[in-house]
Amino acid sequence: MSTRAAQALARPFTLGSAELPNRIVMAPMTRAFSPHGVPGDDVAAYYGRRAAAGTGLIITEGTYVDHPSAGDIGKAPRFHGEDSLEGWRRVVGAVHAEGGTIMPQLWHVGIQRVAGKPPYPEAPSVGPSGVALDGTEGAGEALTSADIDRIVEAFAEAAAQAERIGFDGVELHGAHGYLIDQFLWERTNRRTDAYGGDAASRTRFAADIVRAVRERVSPDFPVLFRFSQWKADNYDAKLATTPDELQEVLGPIASAGVTAFHASGRRYWEPEFPDHDSTLNIGGWARKVTGKPVVTVGSVGLDAVFGPETFQGSGAGVQSIEGLLERFERDEFDLVAVGRALLADPEWARKVLTGRESELVPFTKDSVRTLH
Ligand SMILES: Cc1cc2nc3c(=O)[nH]c(=O)nc-3n(C[C@H](O)[C@H](O)[C@H](O)COP(=O)(O)O)c2cc1C
């Protein structure tokens, strides 16, 4: 007899040209186990293990596009250069061999880059206006329009390479206060050219990237766009305070050619706009205002929320997913991403789908310190 979880989550889903075996997605999680930016066999085995245990779609850790200021973690994987791309090709092979699907998360950290850090220590920190997430001016350089064109091209080239080496789609990291999100957010985008001003103008950089990516990949190649209200170190930040404002932000990005949105919330059961007489979370609202498929995420299967303590290995116990299943049964979203619970337990999907929740492993220090 199939479990309630299996009825909700074991159904396949079509995302453009990708046929996902079920609704369970591994959330993108930076691990920094790729020396010189090259993912090795251990990284391939790590993702392959999760595919083998029934994770339908893997979104990889954020991986840097080809721009010197894109990142600041030496061992985070890059998405350019022969060695890195060859490493990624092997990761794709390991996941496909187990019947899974996989998309890289393409990343540029923007003004969050800490000066002097690898992989290119001399590269400046750059953002739409040189303004830091806390509003400090002059924290880095404001991008010129030539820089913007170069970064748009870097995302497009990465997407083209992703399709070439066999990935099933790409995810653009437009969340958490990184570069694309810095353009979307009023506090960090003070530009007076076509990339700044009102909410619609602030979406231009994101929409340009989506359009440039679309031009370089096959028509059905899935392009996911991850966004969030919250920013690193600022969990109360908001891009949109009403459904109409959310529509203003996501509408132009959707029209540019996004296949699906990945709505990054921290607790999936939180109503996003409680004044609007609805219990929909940010994912449910994203689906409602754009009509696109949506991935939800946030504390699935765990009793403590994601935050900076997570990286010090602050633990979280196993929690029931009944509330999530109810939302699936109400058809609020299409897919669910699981972060820390899947780090702790590579077998999370199989256990949940076969009614073995009592065997799930809690999230502990070791979950983040090792690549298992
Ligand atoms: C170790 C770790 C690294 C993360 N790195 C990324 C990342 O590279 N890109 C991203 O969009 N989110 C990243 N996140 C956020 C997760 O994708 C996810 O949204 C968050 O952990 C909430 O889901 P959870 O409650 O199921 O863990 C990271 C989270 C963790 C725990």
Describe it:
- This protein has 13 helices and twelve strands.
- It is globular, with a radius of gyration of 19 Å.
- Helix 2 packs parallel to helix 3, helix 7 runs parallel beside helix 8 (243-255) and helix 8 (243-255) packs across helix 9 (282-290).
- With 372 residues, the chain is of the alpha/beta class.
- It has one domain: Aldolase class I (TIM Barrel, Alpha-Beta Barrel).
- A hairpin with a 2-residue loop joins strand 1 and strand 2 (18-20).
- Flavin mononucleotide binds next to strand 4, strand 8 and helix 11.
- The site of flavin mononucleotide has 24 residues, from strand 4, strand 8 and helix 11.
Summarize the entry for a quick read.
This protein is 33% helix and 15% strand. The chain has helices at 4-9, 41-52, 82-97, 145-164, 179-184, 199-202, 204-216, 243-255, 282-290, 322-329, 340-344, 348-353, 365-369; strands at residues 13-15, 18-20, 24-26, 57-64, 101-107, 126-127, 141-142, 170-176, 223-231, 260-263, 294-297, 335-338. By secondary structure, it is of the alpha/beta class.
